[in-house]
Design goal:
The structure is a homodimer.
Chain A: H1 10-35, H2 39-62, H3 69-106, H4 121-152, H5 155-169, H6 182-202, H7 218-237, H8 243-268, H9 276-306
Helix pairs in contact in A: 1-2, 1-5, 1-6, 2-3, 2-7, 3-4, 3-5, 3-8, 3-9, 4-9, 6-7, 7-8, 8-9
């Protein structure tokens, strides 16, 4: 994205970004309607729809005041509802893929010498653990699929789509803030978002902590992921280079995925009446995903240290 | 250890080293006899005894030919028997300590939100896993303790001790090789040991490999550990700086300990009729120790890259 013209007003720059994202949203919606029974096409369309919905919602929040607040807050609430509803189905599917790939990797353990049985316990256990996880996550995905179909057919969704369609042609603007210069209106708000991110990164608990399998530090990282997105979208809007922020964000996406996969493995191990070998494989899987959590934290810090401090 | 006098003969240098190690062996033996019911004192004495026995045995092999071969080979066989017998008790004890510390670290996992029971399954399971490991390893240690007491009271041991006592005052030397110069006799043999080590390091499988929980690459690392010891003892004898070799060796000691602890956790998980929560905790423990194996490999490579190539 090119740097905005220095003579542009805040309203022109925010308006252009919101119109472009609204157009992407409508394209995603059309692709979704056209995809019909093609599950891959529908998933791609949902990704496009969610990406645009997130950008519109986040920009309305970061640059709150440049558009009329009651309208912006109302649309943002609806976009958050929509993108979180659509995200669930994708999350179940990718978590299942992630856990199956990990089990496949882990189960290539030959039987220890001197073990009574022919196959190692992890090989037997991991097949059962895989079946258990597939059952649980497929059920979750099916429910999420129904929920997202229901959402997309609802009058609530049609109202959101109508608002976004209006946005694609005309962005309502605050008569005072929108006429200010980009440097005086948008840049300070973007810097505020950057400062919030910098503070949250500085407050991250040391990693690896004393208890590597303890998930209670994850929330602070998920919050950094959210703030990094806000910072990245503001940078996109202002035409800045966001490549490194995108790389750091991808590390935090892996962090979130591994964190949730570990919790899923731990949860599956509490299923009543499972075999010890199944529980053992789920324990290995849990620890494996927690190590992926730690690895993702390390990757984030590497990209972050390359990334110029947003407040500098 | 100071560099040997360049005018010294191979026999003088090897002889001085063997006499010093034989004296350390006898000191360890005396400490062991004096320690009586003091388990800590006996363990320290056994460490001293084993360290000296290893150095004598390894030096006789590395510099084979400088002492009469039949005598050297015979004594070396007996020293290997002795140090491996004494090592077992220590190995069981330190493995138990290692696994208990790891379980303690791992079990500080709070119950995931929404879990039915009050305590996380790992906390319940890790207490049971700890009890199971303690039972199994304590039994092993008790058996090893009896075996080492029996060994130290045997006529076979008294014969070794007598040979070492002779060595402390007079080292039998080969009349030809021992009169050669250090540079012409000992240095080439030490370089051969260094070259063997360099070849073994170069042939190590890539790490992390595709299957991080697969222990079948461990043997190649254990062999590097053995060859590094041989190289280090030869360096000690020649008065070289062995600090980095000692650091790299310590990383390989941790590698071996983690590898064996992981195998112990996997073995305990095959105990019949254990609870799923116990098996789950053992699975986490297994994966944790396999990650410690990987970490130790990384540390070794860091120290090794600092260490001048032995063949250079």
């Amino acid at each position: 994205m090119a740097l905005p013209n220095p003579d542009s007003t805040a309203g022109e720059v925010l308006g252009a970004y919101l119109r472009a994202q609204a157009t992407a949203f409508l394209r995603g919606l059309r692709l979704h309607e056209e995809s019909g029974p093609d599950a891959h096409g529908a998933a791609d369309a949902a990704l496009l729809l969610r990406a645009a919905a997130r950008r519109i919602g986040v920009s309305l929040a970061t640059f709150r005041g440049v558009t009329p607040n009651p309208w912006a807050d109302g649309l943002r609430t609806e976009l958050v509802w929509l993108s979180s509803t659509l995200a669930d189905e994708h999350a179940y599917g990718s978590r299942l893929t992630r856990l199956m790939e990990a089990l496949h990797r882990l189960s290539a353990v030959p039987a220890p010498r001197g073990s009574g049985s022919g196959a190692g316990s992890l090989t037997v256990g991991s097949a059962r653990a895989g079946a258990l996880l597939e059952r649980q996550l497929t059920l979750g995905r099916t429910r999420a699929h129904s929920a997202s179909l229901q959402a997309l057919g609802s009058s609530r969704f049609h109202a959101v789509a109508d608002s976004v369609a209006v946005l694609a042609s005309e962005v309502p603007l605050d008569p005072v803030a929108a006429t200010g210069r980009v440097e005086e209106v948008l840049v300070p708000l973007a810097e505020l978002a950057g400062a919030r991110l910098g503070t949250a990164v500085a407050a991250l608990p040391e990693s690896p902590g004393p208890h590597p399998y303890d998930a209670h530090t994850d929330a602070a990282w998920h919050e950094v992921r959210r703030l990094l997105r806000v910072h990245r979208y503001a940078g996109e809007l202002l035409g800045e280079d966001v490549d490194r922020a995108a790389l750091a964000g991808a590390a935090l996406d892996r962090h979130r995925d591994a964190s949730e996969a570990a919790a899923t493995a731990a949860g599956a191990a509490r299923t009543p009446r499972i075999a010890p070998a199944t529980a053992y494989a789920l324990g290995v899987l849990h620890a494996d995903q927690r190590h992926a959590v730690e690895a993702a934290r390390g990757e984030f810090h590497r990209f972050w240290s390359l990334h110029p401090a947003p407040t500098a």
